[in-house]
Structure formats: C-alpha cells, structure tokens
C-alpha cells in the first residue's frame, strides 16, 4: 500500500513511524527540511522536501499511484487544498486533519467528497470524547464501548484493596466468568495473559465485559469506595477544553481555569452558561483551594505544556482529587506520567493515528483504539461469511502470539468467548493485540 503523509509535525511523524515498520510504501512530505531531518535515516520511508500544496511536489512524491493521501499539517486550509489536489492528480483516497466542527456535519460529507476530500479527522474533538469517557468513572484509566455499548473495555489500576491480586487467572471463576482479562500492563511490559498468570499490585489490567457486570469488576478491583464524579475542573482553555466542556454529561458541573484574560472572554462565548470560566493560573494552589478543589472529584490539565499538565495533576492529587487526566503530547513523557501515577493520559497523536490506521485496513473494522499506556491496540472486526476465523473454534484458529479475542457482539448482545467459541458471519469481534499487529490479523477476517 502506497501512503503519502503530508506534514512532518507531531501527528504526521508519529504516524510515519508507526507505519514504516509495516512494510508499507510510506512517503513523508514537508517543506521544512529541518523537520524531515529529525526523522533520521533508520526508518523505512521516503522523505520529500516540498510543500503539500505544490503540484510539482505532489507529482514528485508519486501521488498518482497513492492508495492513501493523509494531510495532517497544522493548517486546516492547506490540508483541504492538498487533498483536493491529490485526488485530482490520482490519489485513491484522501484524509484531511481539520479544526472546524461544521465540516464534520453529515450534510457536508458529500460536498467535501465531491471536492476530493474523502475523510476528515478532528483530533481535538476525538481527544475531548476520550477525556469525557475517562472522567465518567473515577476508578478507571480507560473506557471504550463497542457496538453502541454492548461490550465495554475497562482499564483500571490494581491497588492493595483488589480482591484478585496474586490469584492464578484459571482460578478466577471458570467458564462462567462475566469478563475476559485481555491484557496486563506491568512496568514497561504489556502481557497477553494465560491461565497461569496472576495479577500483581500496581498492574494496569484491561477487562472486556458487558455493562451489566461493571459493578462486579469494580468490586473485584477493590474500587467500590471511589467517589462518583460530579464536579470537574479543567486547567487550560484550549480547543480540547472547549469540546470537553461541551461533551460533559448534564449532571457534571464544570469549571475552566485559564490564565489569558482575552481567552477567558472568548471561552464564555463558546461554552454553555452553566460552565464557570475563571481567569487565573491553574498552578496556583491558593487559587485552586479558593475555587473549591477540595470538592472536585476530577481535574483535567489541558495546557500546551506536557510538563505543566503532569505537575498540575500531581498537585491536584495531593490536594485530594480522586481522578486526574493530563494531556501529554510528548511521547517520551508518557511512561514517566504512568510512573508518577497521575491517572489517565490523553495524547492527540495516538488518537489521530488510531483513526487513520483504521482507514488502511482491508477488513471490515469499525473501531481501532491505541491504548496510551500499553504498547497495544484494540480493534472491532466484523466477521465475513466464509472467512478463516469461522472455520474452527477460536482455540484451533491459530491466532498469532500477542493477539487475543476479548469478546463478541452477536445480534446486538455482548458475549464472552472461550476457546470453544465458534464465530459466525456478522459477529462483531473485539480483538486485542500487542504492537501494530492489526494488519496481520486481517487475513483471519477477510
């Protein structure tokens, strides 16, 4: 597959690094030579030093034979223009990064497709949705729904109160167990567990289950005493903060702290009247106390500085906040954020890359999610008639090492799987795998 990535910024370079190891034909283009030089020579990709809106540059990159053209520069207009040019020069499919919510409205989809922009991605909006999912429950690190919530993925950290510590997994309940433990993040290692593995203190454990059994997961994880979230404080008035405030459930009360006075005035126009906007420095402990942080259950740090966000969450934890979420765009800081135990981490690059990666797949995949703390991905495949995955029970299919099936949705109902489960045409199957292995799993579902 020939893929051209226009824009060597954070999203573009991260995506290029992910895809370069998959034996795809990757071309990264940018007019900034310094950005391209930072990519180094150890990646299997081609660098093109041209503007993505240059017709000659696009021809030089070989856009006429491109299966996918991805424009992810910081400039929305350039991305749209680059996609229009790429389509007219022969690219089969285009994706543009945008920051205008109106473009995503269904009535505009056909209009943009006619112009040559086939798909749109708005990383800030995707990030906001993940933040809202993260703060809905104080005791989880990650939450993701499949097929409208018929099956859910929960990631939570094991504390001393967990009932399932140091117990071999095969002793946790047998065939009728109402969850599937799909992965364990332990230190810097992600484990796809078997029956002989056990959960250790401070592991981040990923479960798939149905909504009916979420209270049971909460109980065995020892998280029943965690307070429900009703009050949220957001530090930083970024676009992500605005979207997050807009997506918050009605029962949650939200405050935004922003140090720029003019931005505060703008925020009051962008968010609902019930969202309180405060002009001040979110790092000021006295201000936080004055604004009632002792009564806040969730603190979300969304400034442009990863370091500031991490430190702010640490301060909020010390002031008694149960749930903290930090936007950490510097990938090198993510493991540090986990070691400091700051809570959930949001990274726009990972989120955008997951959505774009989904577009590359030949199989019918409706969702792809990159798990921020774990070097792992989750995908929702739809089983095709006659595909390899339907030929035998799951235990006899021969899935590659590092992959496991977390559950399935059949006729709208979430179902746990065992090795003897036989998949059928039309099933929605949740697959958990290490690294970027999803492409290798396509042959089982096609």
TrEMBL record:
PROSITE patterns: RCK_C, RCK_N
Domain RCK C-terminal, residue spans: 141-223, 366-446
GO molecular function: potassium ion transmembrane transporter activity
Domain RCK N-terminal: residue ranges: 1-121, 229-346
UniProt key word Lipoprotein: no
Pfam families, A to Z: TrkA_C (PF02080), TrkA_N (PF02254)
One cellular component (GO) term of this entry: plasma membrane
Entry keywords, A to Z: Ion transport, NAD, Potassium, Potassium transport, Transport
Protein name per the record: Trk system potassium uptake protein TrkA
Organism for this UniProt entry: Phocaeicola coprophilus DSM 18228 = JCM 13818
